[in-house]
Amino acid sequence: MIRVLLVDDQSIVREGLASLLETHDDIEIVGEAENGKLAVERSLSLQPDVVLMDIRMPVMDGVAAIKALAKQAPDIKILVLTTFDDDEYVAQSMAYGAKGYLLKDTPSTELAEAIRFANKGYTQLSPGLFKKAVTTSTATQTPELETLTSREKEVLQLIAKGYSNREIAEQLYIAERTVKNHVNSILRRLNLRDRTQAAIFVNTGDR
């Protein structure tokens, strides 16, 4: 069962999302919050698997809440669901640790699937938002792929495809511990925070 916290300043939106999502047997709504401050507090107390986070809210907005939760509860996956596709919102949300950024016109079945993927650690973006997501997160970075070994480049490509360390180990016929060492080296060499940023880096194309 995937435990979800709903965060939106409009009660009617929270009620609608709860009704839609609870039709899925593997999703449970464990709480709600109407602003970012309460989202942080209730996430820490309820420990949901996934937080479905709006962006523009009173008291504390979604971006600030994402940043706070990334520091205080990094294991909780955050999936943005909003009406705003502003470049800065998208880029900041992803840079601060959100696992995805979806718009509220996303069909309910796709939203449920996005929650499942986010729970597994995969990045989810609404169509057309990928470029926005990387605009800020990569603008200040000048990583060089040539600093990687051939094996690290292979590992990086598989990370971009969403492979786990175990799956990468099986694909390349190497030990899982070796894969972990390669991943750590890749993140360090390219000045990236985590696997999500590594995937985004690859998918921006040759640079």
Count of individual helical segments: 10
Major sheet description: 6 strands, parallel
Query: Main sheet: which strands, in order across?
Result: 2-1-3-4-5-6
Rg, nearest Å: 17 Å
Quick one: overall form?
elongated
Strand content: 5-15%
The helix content, as a percent range, equals 40-55%
Q: Termini, distance in Å?
A: 41 Å
Uncertain ranges: 135-143
- Mean pLDDT across every amino acid position: 86
Question: In short, what is this structure?
Answer:
This protein is an alpha/beta fold.
Structural descriptors:
14% strand, six-stranded parallel beta sheet
3D structure, described in words:
- With 207 residues, the protein is α/β, with parallel strands linked by helices.
- Helices cover 52% and strands 14% of the residues.
- A six-stranded parallel β-sheet has the order 2-1-3-4-5-6, sandwiched between helices.
- Helix 2 (36-46) runs parallel beside helix 3 (62-72), helix 4 (87-95) packs across helix 6 and helix 7 crosses helix 9 (176-190).
SSE arrangement:
Blueprint: E1 2-7, H1 11-21, E2 27-33, H2 36-46, E3 50-53, H3 62-72, E4 77-82, H4 87-95, E5 100-103, H5 108-119, E6 124-125, H6 130-139, H7 150-160, H8 165-172, H9 176-190, H10 195-203
Parallel strand pairs: 1-2, 1-3, 3-4, 4-5, 5-6
Helix pairs in contact: 2-3, 4-6, 7-9, 7-10, 8-9
